[in-house]
Structure formats: C-alpha cells, structure tokens
C-alpha cells in the first residue's frame, strides 16, 4: 500500500491583519490546534509580523511561512524580504508567485529565481499558478498553467529531502466565496502533475499539488484527493481561528 502523504493547510493572512491582531490570532490558533493530526499547518502572516508570530509558534507543530521572498540573500535591495533572514526567524515555507504579486509585476522569471533562492535557504517553496477569468473564458487555462509551471521549475534541482509545493489558484475565484468546479480542479491538477513529471525524473517524487481559492470548511474535502492533491491555501477563512481549525479537522477526518 502506498503511504499516505502529509496534508497541508497554508493560512495566507495577506495584508489583512494588524500586528496585535496577527499575534492574537496566532496564539488562538496555537491553543486550539492541539496536535493537528496528519495535517501540517503553516501560518503566513504579513512580513512585519513574521518574527513575532514565529516566537509564538516556536516549539509548537505549527509552521511559519513568508508570503513572499526576494531572490537574493542580502544586498542593496530596499524593501525586499531576504530568504536567508526569513529562514533565520523561523520560516520553513515561502509562498512564491501569488497572483496578487504577479498582478503587481512579478514575472515568471522572478518566480523561478525565488524558487531557487527558497531551496538554497531550506525554505519549502509554495509556487502559485492560476489563470485569470479572461484566460479561463478564452479557454487558455491549460496553456497558462503549463507555461507558469514550466517556467517556475526551469533548471530547478532539489537536494535529497527537499520538495516543492505547487498551488493551483484560479485567480478569478480567489476571495470570491465560490471555489472552482471540482471537475476543472481535477483536470488542472492532472495537467500540473504531468507538466512537472515531464520536466524530468529529478522532480518526479518531489512535488505536491495543492488548491487555493475560496476554500472553506464545507468544500475543503473536495480538494484533497488521495496522494494527488494534498492540501489547500486558505485566505479569508484563515482569519478566524475557529474556521481555520474546522478546516483542519475536516481534513483530518478524510
Ligand atoms: P481566499 O484566498 O481563500 O480568500 O480565496 C486564497 C489565496 O489568495 O491564497
């Protein structure tokens, strides 16, 4: 029997909470999370709260993730987030290429360099890919996804024990309250798996696919499919401890 893979819940708080709110929420999640079962919970607070949230999570099973990193460790890069420092303050994960960043000008090349920088610093990259509504309407979803995955993973090599998480997040369902149709999701997951595997044996057993976009406690089970799709990114519904914990519990019941 194949071993059940670990499940992931990535809480993306975006820039929606203040400092005190972030710390209060982190404490509440930690208190209510207990052992978390088979699910790995990653809290991704806004950059200015990372260090303090990290202190709260220290010693617990909950992990810390950055919402963004830069592709250099140090230097004259005003306003950037060093992957090396992110690691130093306790991050184990980094979201890369979220559509809200791509919208502000982040390119596939940036994403690729950030993936490399994350791995170099022992951060697990969570690479977001997804089509806009226009691309969806124009039936370009597959082309967009294949392109984004290919360019993100180009020339990336992983050391023993390293992995990459690829998150399918259709841009048009993020924050809409309505997750993507299950059929579309399954189809795109297959495309992502195919694309990553085609890129070489090197990556074959070293990536996970997860889903993001209006995940809630009701629909979360639809997006965890055996060892094929192993987790979720949660935005709005990660801003309340009870909702987030309910999502974890529902994943654990699978
Ligand atoms: P949402 O956000 O759950 O609010 O749709 C998800 C994301 O942007 O990662």
Notable characteristics:
TIM Barrel, alpha/beta, single chain, 254 residues, binds 2-phosphoglycolic acid
Strand order of the largest sheet: 1-2-3-4-5-6-7-8
β-strand number: 8
Which CATH class is shown? Answer: Alpha Beta
CATH topology, what is it called? TIM Barrel
The number of helical segments is 10
From the spread of the alpha carbons, the general shape counts as globular
Please describe the biggest sheet, giving its number of strands, its sense, and whether it closes into a barrel: 8 strands, parallel, barrel
Q: What is the SS-derived class?
A: alpha/beta
Oligomer: single chain
Helix content: 25-40%
CATH architecture: Alpha-Beta Barrel
Termini gap = 17 Å
Report on the structure:
- There is one protein chain.
- This protein has 254 residues and is of the alpha/beta class.
- It has a single domain, classed as Alpha-Beta Barrel (TIM Barrel).
- The protein is 38% helix and 18% strand.
- The protein is built from ten helices and eight strands.
- An eight-stranded parallel β-barrel has the order 1-2-3-4-5-6-7-8, surrounded by five helices.
- Helix 1 packs parallel to helix 2, helix 1 packs parallel to helix 10 and helix 5 crosses helix 7.
- The longest helix has 17 residues.
- The structure holds 2-phosphoglycolic acid.
- 2-phosphoglycolic acid (PGA) binds next to strand 8.
- The site of 2-phosphoglycolic acid has 13 residues, from strand 8.
